[in-house]
Amino acid sequence: MKKHWRSLLIIIITIAATLIVLIPATTWMTANVKSARVIHNSRMEPVILIPGSSATQDRFNTLINDLNKQTTGHSLLKITVQTNGTLKYSGRIARNDNEPYIVVAFENNKDGYPNIKKQAAWFNTAFNQLRKTYRFNRFRGIGHSNGGLIYTLFLEKYYAADDVTMSRLMTIGTPYNLAESNSDNRTQMLSDMITARKALPTGLTVYSIAGTENLDGDGTVPIESVEAGKYIFQNQVKHYTQITVSGDDAAHSDLPQNQQIVQLISQYIVATPNQQGVPGITRTPNGTGVGQPG
Amino acid sequence: METYIQTKLLPGLIRQSVRIRRWRMYRVLKQTLAVIFPFILLGAVTQAVNSSVFSPRGFFAEIYHLQTVIPFYTDIQHILTVIQAVTINLSAPAVAFLAAKFMAHSYHKDETLAGLTSMLSFFTFNLNFAPGQHDTFLIQNLGYRGLFFAFWLGIGIGWLFRFGKMSQEPNLKESSISDRVTNSLHHLLLINLILLISMAISYAISFIAPDGLIGFIYSLFQFPGNRLTGHVSIRLALLATMNAALWWAGLEGPLNLANAGGQGGTLSTDNLNYALEHNSLFNVPHPYTMSTVYYPFANFGGVGMMLALIFAIFIISRRHSTREIAGLALAPAIVNSPIAILVGLPVILNPILIVPFILTPLVNQGIAWFVIRIHLMPPPVYAVPEGTPGPLIAFLGTNGNWVALVVSLLCLTVSTLIYLPFVKLNMTVNDKVAQLEAHDEKTLA
What is the total count of domains within chain B? Predict the structure, then answer.
């Protein structure tokens, strides 16, 4: 009986000693790896923008022009992915610019689920090419209209969380249920996206912005279709925020120029508004030449 | 099969081991190590505390932020370093003295003179002949690194004293001082000859090896690791085997956790860079290296999984002295310093324990290799602080992978199970030898 108690005591002491060591050791480890990672993170964290259907790589010129009036040092690179997968570049990223805007548009910019799937694959091609060229391991994204759908498909199907981290995504007037205004009638695309939602990165913060010109929506996309995004993102990503914007410029195609949305972007997406020491950023009214060395 | 093992193999093995134990040299080894053990233990404990608590990058210092908690931190560190310098780092001359003393004693010759001569000869072999302002002796060779050479030097010189002119009188203690003088004079020629020859060899060696004879011996054992071809697992296994064999012989093997920082080199840096750029460790460029497979899984308590040996002793040994040695050596073994148990049991040159000593690291490496291969666990690539307890290295090195912790505990269990039968066999042989020795003494009396 005495021996029994002794071995019990030894076991209790061993477990206690292990915990006394293990718990602070784990805390140390987490802090250590985290700080090592921060030091090692790529300096560049681009904001990658995808326009909606029928839009070209110049779709965001006005938006970026507006943003650059409030901030300094962000250059603009525009890419159009051809149907054969090759990339056409215009503009360039300025030296020392750690937060450039990169617009990825598609030669085939047609609407429709099969096209959106193709565009997601093309975006993946462009994304890998960009990562190879500029060597970043983190980025933020903005998708207007179908651009938000392309981002969602990309995240569910192609995004490799082992290699790169997407911390924030803003979708603007994105029709997660296409033109369907009744959320009970799920389109094929929406149910596919809900099925694959577990692949979405758990560390991502998503802002979904809806425009409301009238009580039904922004005139093109029904408000219920934008709100259907909650079935995809809610309880899977880290944060999912739904914002509704009304007033001037709340029509679907005006949303990227809406001053409230410009404010939201500079508040939630742009990490370093004023970058020092970036040469050659000139501002021209129509947005062309932004990012060209002066 | 069972009966064969029981009737033929085991008794034969025990008989052979008992014979080896009763060899003159082996008895001298055991006596030497027994005498030096307290000093080694003090040094090992000091070293363990110094490297894990009182060095700012040590394990306990890091996790409890001890540098800001303990007053007079650097002063204590300084004192501990000095204690280490006079214990472990001066153990080789002591071993040279003791080995010669016990060897001469076994021939009933003048043991004090033999010991003294041997120690001075050892110092002679470690003179620093380099020109300019230098230490008189090659201090790096006076610690565990020089133990192997010191022992065999002592054996040799003790043996030479066999030809000393006068056998030691049993009542020399009570003899007059003039008798002592006469005795020393008798050995004058022998002592001077030994020292002069040592000096000549030492000087000659200094031309080819700046590190002295001991440095020369180590250069013979330089492992041609990068020249080896073949599968990576075979390379790792060969290196681990070689390392264990050297430590077993009383030489410092190439794999020493104290200088593990420089071991992995570019491979570890590649792995770490990959790990920091990507979020997953599974696809690091070099999944099987010494710092992903050997140190985190096959080096608990230092070379040969000494922590497992200590546990095996706690489980099976009924001998009070053995359990006590294991208990004393546990503290340094927790922070991966093996010297206390290597010298205390002893494991050094022990013909029974060499089998698990070489086998357990290989088995553990195999387990780790397999689990990493089937992608159940990522390879540990993050650096851990010095003196991290063995079973925690993998967990911390993978940034908290629980599978790695489970595999570590599995490795510890398997190693303990491997050690159990050998510890038992060692016990049986020890008892037999003790019996025979008691019998010898009875017949002598």
Answer: 2
**Domain range holding B43?**
24-219
> For residue range B204-251, what is the model confidence (pLDDT) as tens digits?
988 888 888 888 888 777 655 555 566 777 888 888 888 899 889 888
- Spatial distance between the Cα atoms of B362 and B298, rounded to a whole number of angstroms: 7
- Smallest Cβ–Cβ distance between B392 and the set A22, A37, A162 belongs to A22
> Chain B contact for A27, CB < 8 A?
yes
Tell me the whole-structure pTM to 2 decimals. 0.75
Average pLDDT over residues A29-37: 86
Among A29, A49, A33, A51, which Cα is nearest to A41's? A33
Residue B182 has pLDDT above 80, yes or no: no
A89 touches chain B (CB under 8 A): no
Q: Which of B219, B252, B277 is the last residue of a domain?
A: B219
Residue B266 pLDDT greater than 70, yes or no: yes
For chain A, how far is it from start to end, CA to CA, in angstroms? 88
Interface A-B, measured as beta-carbon pairs within 8 A, has a size of 45
Domain boundary among B182, B201, B219: B219
A10 near B CB under 8 A: no
Instruction: Output the six-digit token pair for B299.
Output: 């080096």
> Which helix (DSSP H) or strand (DSSP E) does residue A128 occupy?
helix A113-134
Q: How far is CA A113 from the centre of its chain?
A: 20
pLDDT at A210 over 90: yes
> By a Cβ cutoff of 8 Å, what residues of chain B touch chain A?
59, 62-64, 273, 276-280, 282-283, 382, 388-389, 392, 396, 399-400
Domain hosting A167: range is 47-268
List of chain A residues whose C-beta atoms are within 8 Å of the C-beta of residue B382: 29, 32-33, 36
pLDDT value of residue A284: 45
Q: What is the interface pTM, i.e. ipTM, of the complex?
A: 0.79
Q: Give the pLDDT band of residue A96 (cuts 50, 70, 90).
A: confident
Q: What is the pLDDT of residue B41?
A: 93
Of B276, B280, B392, the CB nearest to A25: B392
